[in-house]
């Protein structure tokens, strides 16, 4: 399975993004451009390849879906405090890949204190939230009562274990059915997220512990989108 309908008109996909076919809108979250510099400051030195990797992935996705509009659900950049020269160039390069084919909208994330100047330089609209096709979109770090709602922020992932102890960690979507809330995985290849089968704690004030455990999990894998049941069920399998 490569896609699954979550809300009327909105599908999740194995491409780590959501898709609204009628409106031709693609939704993705948490690119965290510039994360390599933050990791280097902590002593972990990685090649600056994340932006290039995401550009290639975006080119493929844009060709596949041919969207008219792309909504980025915040944390496009990683550094809270500044726009370093390299980060500015990498953010612009990623946004230009999208803008060549579609309009770009950005919801403000908790890492995006200084993103407005970059967005303005490319004439890209940036707001706290957007509404499209009756669905609300926000980053997820602040409370928002409107539903149905799609957010990022959490970087959700789960770790699956086989009978002999082998494990694989998958980025995933979380569907909180009763809350009419969908959480997207991080699009960044360097931000796979916390293993929720162990932590069982949400960052967003929109998600309480009971709702998190009851959420339906859809893992993104090389063989497609995997319906994995509830987070509580996956967590119990780890015991």
**CATH-defined topology:** Purple Acid Phosphatase, chain A, domain 2
Q: State the helicity in percent bands.
A: 25-40%
CATH class: Alpha Beta
* Termini separation: 28 Å
Task: Quickly list its features.
239 residues; alpha/beta; Purple Acid Phosphatase, chain A, domain 2; eight-stranded mixed beta sheet; seven-stranded mixed beta sheet; 29% strand; globular
Walk me through the structure:
This protein is an alpha/beta fold. The chain has one domain (3-237): Purple Acid Phosphatase, chain A, domain 2. Helix content is 26%, strand content 29%. Strands 8, 9, 10, 11, 12, 13, 14 and 15 form an 8-stranded mixed beta sheet that branches. Helix 2 runs parallel beside helix 3 (85-99). The radius of gyration is 17 Å and the shape is globular. The two termini are 28 Å apart. The mean pLDDT is 86.
Nutshell version of this structure?
The chain has helices at residues 35-41, 50-65, 85-99, 115-121, 196-199, 209-214, 231-237, and strands spanning 3-7, 10-13, 18-20, 25-28, 69-72, 103-107, 125-127, 129-132, 135-138, 149-151, 157-161, 167-176, 181-183, 216-221, 224-230. It has 239 residues and is an alpha/beta fold.
